[in-house]
Design goal:
This protein is mainly beta and 491 residues long. It contains four helices and 35 strands. The protein binds cobalt (II) ion.
Length: 491
């Protein structure tokens, strides 16, 4: 593994960061009273977040946060007030393990049943954990995890209703990724919004299925393709005419997994000598063939956005030098940030005519969880927001939010150092907004000093300013992964 040498001033304390990975076992429902500043009265709607809420089962630590049971947080904004509630997704595995009071399933990212390799030998059953994203679409609240069907929840009570099959568009055992993209203005649907998502069935060749759902939640288009080679694809991007996937160079050796020595996710190995293949799949007609372009190796979990310009597709992505590997023996809580290469923002130009790819580094800070204005998905855009390390170089936990102006190169930053830790921001446009950045950045920030989390509302036009409001929760929220905002309120 390559050791990332560049070292910056340390802005954090590892123990503070670790405390954000304590389980939150209690489920709450309350109006938030402890508020600094004022909640903008025009801010109306619901922020849903999902992430691993349990990092242990009755004291037995899980091996990686990606193996933690999904916990939904709902923060509702109405009339200048805010309400918090959280509920675990009642997957069968969650219910069984809570009843048993111990780990019963192996996790994809290395959580093993107690008893060593013998207890895990040829046990291919993994727990569905519904822990990666949550979205309200077509009147349904869906908890998403890329290796299974979505779980549907009641948005008013957050009770788990069961698996969602979209009237038979999915069948039992099908996957539905955790990274849907919403085309705000779909040409294929007369300008109405459309949710585009995919599923991956990896193997010697990989099956990619693309689903497009109308605003009622019905699957209106579905197409499937086989591409050569194994693929581990977490996210994708869309434009009005294409879905684009990065097939980063990885291989899969199932033997240590089958023998019970590690989790399936730990058997995925990066191949630095092989290129990344960029799969460009037309959304609408079958006349146009899939195009496959090649570029440098590297690994992408999350893309920012893509858009078409003349003969090009332009894609902005957070790239790593390689896939950060989850070691069988190491504990994620002891992560040595200095030894890992940071995620950095790159721009790719795909020329469909010449079949060439050019790329350049846009932002060298360590960053993750990028988001943009929802109306700009698939379109040329000016502003992006993302979690970032406080320092301008090196690798570190995310403690700040960075806003980039892609036209002028101007940067703004709001930092929660030394004791605050951040995750994914969400941009919410202000009603009757007059510019692309006229709105709020909503986030949940872990404050290690108080061992609790704050819902922070920033003015997206100027992140350098102090927050508009900080809503102190009564407890911490373990670091979440992804979420979405809807204009509807369910309290
Ligand atoms: Co993700």
């Amino acid at each position: 593994m390559q050791v990332y040498q560049e070292k910056s001033t340390v802005s954090y304390n590892l123990e503070d960061w670790q405390k954000g990975y304590e389980s939150l076992k209690q489920e709450f429902d309350y109006w938030i009273e402890d508020i600094e500043g004022e909640i903008p009265p025009e801010l109306h709607g619901t922020l849903f977040r999902n992430g691993p809420g349990l990092l242990d089962i009755n004291g037995q630590n899980i091996h990686h946060p990606f193996d933690g049971d999904g916990m939904i947080c709902r923060i509702s904004f109405t009339n200048g007030r805010a309400h918090f509630s959280n509920r675990y997704v009642r997957t069968p595995g969650y219910v069984e393990e809570q009843k048993a009071g111990k780990i019963l399933y192996r996790g994809v990212f290395g959580t093993q049943k107690p008893g060593g390799w013998l207890a895990n030998f040829f046990d291919f059953k993994y727990k569905e954990i519904a822990n990666t994203n949550v979205i309200y679409w077509g009147g349904k609240l869906l908890a998403l995890w890329e290796a299974s069907e979505p779980y549907r929840l009641n948005p008013k009570t957050l009770d788990t209703l069961g698996k969602e099959y979209f009237d038979g568009a999915l069948t039992e055992g099908d996957a539905f990724s955790a990274h849907p993209r919403i085309d705000p203005n779909s040409n294929l649907d007369g300008g109405a919004p459309c949710l585009v998502n995919f599923s991956i069935k990896p193997g010697l060749s990989t099956r990619i299925t693309i689903f497009e759902l109308d605003t009622t939640g019905k699957v209106v288009r579905k197409q499937a393709h086989s591409v050569p080679g194994f693929a581990f694809i977490h996210d994708f991007v869309i434009t009005p005419n294409y879905c684009i996937f990065f097939q980063n160079p990885v291989s899969f050796n199932p033997i240590p997994f089958a023998l019970g020595m590690c989790g399936a996710g730990q058997c995925v190995k990066f191949q630095a000598d092989k290129p990344t293949r960029i799969l460009i799949i037309p959304r609408s007609n079958q006349k146009e063939k899939i195009k496959i372009l090649e570029t440098k190796a590297g690994f992408v979990f999350h893309h920012v956005n893509a858009f078409e310009r003349d003969e090009e597709i332009i894609i902005d992505s957070i790239c790593y030098e390689s896939l950060p590997e989850v070691e069988p023996e190491s504990d994620f809580r002891q992560t040595n940030f200095d030894k890992l290469a940071p995620g950095q923002l790159w721009r790719f130009h795909l020329n469909l005519q010449n079949q060439t790819v050019e790329y350049k580094l846009i932002e060298s800070s360590c960053c993750e969880f990028p988001i943009i204005h929802p109306e700009k998905v698939g379109r040329d855009y000016q502003y992006l927001y993302m979690g970032a390390a406080d320092a301008a170089s090196g690798n570190a936990p995310l403690q700040a939010f960075l806003k980039l102006d892609l036209q002028t190169g101007e940067k703004q930053i709001w930092s929660a150092v030394p004791r605050g830790f951040v995750g994914e921001p969400i941009f919410v446009p202000r009603p009757q907004a007059t510019s692309e950045d006229d709105g709020w950045v909503l986030t949940v920030v872990y404050d290690a000093a108080a061992h609790r989390s704050d819902v922070v509302i920033l003015d997206a036009r100027d992140l350098n300013q102090e927050p508009i409001a900080k809503l102190h929760l009564k407890h911490h929220v373990p670091y979440s992964l992804h979420g979405n905002f809807t204009n509807q309120v369910f309290v």
